[in-house]
Amino acid sequence: MFELLPLILIGVLFVINRGAAKRIDRLEAELGEVRERLLRVSGATAAPSAIPMETEEPADVAPPQTVAETVIAEELALDGAPYQSAPASLPEENTELLATAARSKATPAAPAESLENLLGARWAVWAGGLALALGGVFLVRYSIESGLLGPGVRLTLAALFGLLLIAAGELIRRKALPKAEALYSNAMVPGILTAAGAVSLFGAIYAAHGIYEFIGPTLAFLLLGLTAFGVLGLSLLHGQALAGLGLVGSMLTPLLISTTAPSLWTLFIYLTVAQVATALASRIKGWLIVPAIAQVLLGLWALVALIDAAEITPVALSLIAMIASWMLIWPGAKGEDPATPETPLSLDALGRRMASGPLALDITLSLAVLLPALVMLDRGPTVSLPLFAFAALVAALAAAGSARHGAFWPTALAAMGALIGAVVKSGLIAQAQVLLLGFGWDETAVVSLGGPVMLIFLGLAAVFAFIGLAQNRRRFAEDPLFATVWAVIVAVLPVMLTTISFVFYGTYARDWAHGLFALGLGAVLLAACEYLARQGALPGFRRGIDILILGSFAAFALMLHCLTDGVVTTILLALLGFAYLMATRKRAWSGLPWMMVAALVGVLVRIFWDPTLVGPDALSRTPVFNQLLPGYGVPALLALLSAYEMRNWPGLRVRNALQGLASLLGLLAVAILIRHAMNGGVLDASAPTLGEQSIYTLLVVGLSGILMTLDVKSPSPVFRYGSMVAGGIAILQTLSLHLGVLNPYFSGESTGNWPLINVLLIGYLLPGLAYAGLAFYARDKRPLPYVILLALSGALLGFAWVTLSVRRFWQGEFISYWKGFEQAETYSYSVAWLAIGVGLLALGSRFDARSLRIASAVIVMLTVAKVFLVDMANLEGVLRALSFIGLGFVLIGIGLFYQRILSGKSSRSPDVDDEEAPTGI
């Protein structure tokens, strides 16, 4: 019974074919009648000049006068709509506009697909195709279980059934249902039948080899491959779904065929042909999904093949062939929308570029190439061959991405893959793990591969530099956004690859190979900037030229590190940045002065890494005149000259940056020389003494005053805010160090042998006077709260100096807290504090400074509290009486003094206020 099923199905197909043919004949007859009717109408009005001008047309339908009108009349006649001729007075272009409008009006909108059509014409066909495929499978299964037919007959019938389904699909496509196919294009009646037949053929061939062993692996491989390619060819007629089936069948064929002597060359030649054939078919039909799947499958095959890693050459060549097919055939969308020269260079524009184009094709290609390439780094029979294959794949992908106009992802991912491969191959990850665990630098973690690896790294860097500069030359005008992306790659990737090669495979003392390569790279990038500027790249490609300038500076800086060391490198780095800055006299490129900023930042990094610049053992112990003087002084001097040179530069940010760096480096130079001198020529991590810290505080206060002066002469945000930041840092140093950690009362440090000229003078009185002078200088230049803070800091340091000096008078050189207090010492504090309060009150009255008067009031109240709380409890006899008597006289005198001040103010003009006094603080 079931063996007659194929014959029954064939009969049903013929019946369907016959009914469809009758419907087609009827439609052709109706179209012929409509065509004859239109020809008669056009023939009757073919000679409009024979009709007299005064004769009025009685018909409702005006005859067409032009070819366009004739076309409109034919289209409207199909819809039964009357045709109105254009007025004779209209010119020809207006007639064409009317023709276009009428055509758009006459074209009816496509009706929405009903539920009946969806279920009856589409889903029924899909379910029917699945039923046919399952029916063939069940028929073979039943014949096996019943033993009705032998294996050979069953396989033959299955193959014939598949061929008949393919033939039926082609027959229906050609003759049976052309209109239904156009109306229900997604129903894919011919494609469903062809797919079901292809499944039957795949199953029959595989069963003949894998189950019954009727045919050998070679014949089975050829038959499966031919079937897959045949289905792929038929997909040009039946659609992308059938192409996917043929692709999957071709890619799975090697898995279905087992052999005792597998050959990677044969396998990947076959897979490459399948992928290229899929690319060609997709290019013809404009498909995007199938070619992306083909690239993914080939990449997966490459990863599977690399597990054994007997050979990597066929895998690499197959991936290169896939890159070539993407670049030359490029299946998918043909139109591109690259950025125009007017496109702004912004993150938004870059995001639109990243999301444009056939993303599935670009990303799948990149990942299918890069992932196997990264796996190749640890595979292969030799040491250098995997790295060479990796470099070839990455370079080929980068070249293809640059050749394809507007392709962003192959270019970007190739650069990222090159950097990841260099990091992995050099053992940087292993070194990072060792450093994080605290074991230091492990020399055994670096794989010593010799010259070939270094040459491959440098060669890959040269390839990216060449490709990138070629792209900049070709596309800086028409596509500045993409050219800027390549400028970033050229400026960053070659320098990083060279740096990794130098760090892991170079000679630290003096490496001529890496140094000369970096020198040549920097010269090429700088020459490219000059060439592009002369070609008119400015101002549209200004950012790209700035990035290339940065790349050249980075290359030259790497050259300095390869060929020099120690303080020489630091000085030459600053000189290199200064040379770029001085080049602004010849070329007004916006990126040139920023190289000086980069150089000074590099100097700061070197100082942070090793403050001695030459190593602790090699640092001279001679004060001032040692390696620190040129190492810190020359960059500071060049920074100062750079800030002066850029005083008229239009870029405000670079001027501010140079001014700030010049101030910072100058302060560092003086501070490091002081520390070196006060620590016996040794720079260590020990905490500074009070005297040393006092010098630092004086430096910061002086820096604040210098910046304030510069701001008055040449207003700048760096000078304005920098002066207040410096003053704030000095105030924090006073509160945390002078009065806290480094205070001899707490630290026990010796104050010196001399009574007055000692550490207390340097640590408290001199900084206090500096704060007072800075507050006086800033009273009309900075905000009032900032000036008050400075004045209060000075008063607080002065108060601390007097108090600690009194304790030193009674306790001697060491004034630590554990020594306790004597009665005379306790009384002396009250006298000294009252004297300070009176003195501040006098100064506040003299300069009309309210902040000093407030400080005086605070100290007097503190003295009152001390007398009533401390002196009353601790003093005895005449000292207690003298304490209260003296306090009383002073308070009465202060009251009389304030009454005099207030009476003097009341006699002044009411429109003159104490707050408006020009010298008030």
From TrEMBL:
<feature type="transmembrane region" description="Helical">
    <location>
        <begin position="481"/>
        <end position="506"/>
    </location>
</feature>
<feature type="transmembrane region" description="Helical">
    <location>
        <begin position="286"/>
        <end position="306"/>
    </location>
</feature>
<feature type="transmembrane region" description="Helical">
    <location>
        <begin position="152"/>
        <end position="172"/>
    </location>
</feature>
<keyword id="KW-0812">Transmembrane</keyword>
<feature type="transmembrane region" description="Helical">
    <location>
        <begin position="624"/>
        <end position="644"/>
    </location>
</feature>
<keyword id="KW-0175">Coiled coil</keyword>
<dbReference type="InterPro" id="IPR019286">
    <property type="entry name" value="DUF2339_TM"/>
</dbReference>
<feature type="transmembrane region" description="Helical">
    <location>
        <begin position="754"/>
        <end position="777"/>
    </location>
</feature>
<feature type="transmembrane region" description="Helical">
    <location>
        <begin position="656"/>
        <end position="674"/>
    </location>
</feature>
<keyword id="KW-0472">Membrane</keyword>
<feature type="transmembrane region" description="Helical">
    <location>
        <begin position="851"/>
        <end position="869"/>
    </location>
</feature>
<feature type="transmembrane region" description="Helical">
    <location>
        <begin position="359"/>
        <end position="377"/>
    </location>
</feature>
<feature type="transmembrane region" description="Helical">
    <location>
        <begin position="219"/>
        <end position="239"/>
    </location>
</feature>
<dbReference type="InterPro" id="IPR014600">
    <property type="entry name" value="UCP035905_mem"/>
</dbReference>
<feature type="transmembrane region" description="Helical">
    <location>
        <begin position="383"/>
        <end position="401"/>
    </location>
</feature>
<feature type="transmembrane region" description="Helical">
    <location>
        <begin position="512"/>
        <end position="533"/>
    </location>
</feature>
<dbReference type="Pfam" id="PF10101">
    <property type="entry name" value="DUF2339"/>
</dbReference>
<feature type="transmembrane region" description="Helical">
    <location>
        <begin position="724"/>
        <end position="742"/>
    </location>
</feature>
<feature type="transmembrane region" description="Helical">
    <location>
        <begin position="445"/>
        <end position="469"/>
    </location>
</feature>
<feature type="transmembrane region" description="Helical">
    <location>
        <begin position="591"/>
        <end position="609"/>
    </location>
</feature>
<keyword id="KW-1133">Transmembrane helix</keyword>
<feature type="transmembrane region" description="Helical">
    <location>
        <begin position="567"/>
        <end position="584"/>
    </location>
</feature>
<feature type="transmembrane region" description="Helical">
    <location>
        <begin position="192"/>
        <end position="212"/>
    </location>
</feature>
<feature type="transmembrane region" description="Helical">
    <location>
        <begin position="694"/>
        <end position="712"/>
    </location>
</feature>
<feature type="transmembrane region" description="Helical">
    <location>
        <begin position="784"/>
        <end position="806"/>
    </location>
</feature>
<feature type="transmembrane region" description="Helical">
    <location>
        <begin position="123"/>
        <end position="140"/>
    </location>
</feature>
<feature type="transmembrane region" description="Helical">
    <location>
        <begin position="312"/>
        <end position="330"/>
    </location>
</feature>
<feature type="transmembrane region" description="Helical">
    <location>
        <begin position="826"/>
        <end position="844"/>
    </location>
</feature>
<feature type="transmembrane region" description="Helical">
    <location>
        <begin position="251"/>
        <end position="274"/>
    </location>
</feature>
<feature type="transmembrane region" description="Helical">
    <location>
        <begin position="413"/>
        <end position="439"/>
    </location>
</feature>
<feature type="coiled-coil region">
    <location>
        <begin position="17"/>
        <end position="44"/>
    </location>
</feature>
<protein>
    <recommendedName>
        <fullName>DUF2339 domain-containing protein</fullName>
    </recommendedName>
</protein>
<feature type="transmembrane region" description="Helical">
    <location>
        <begin position="881"/>
        <end position="898"/>
    </location>
</feature>
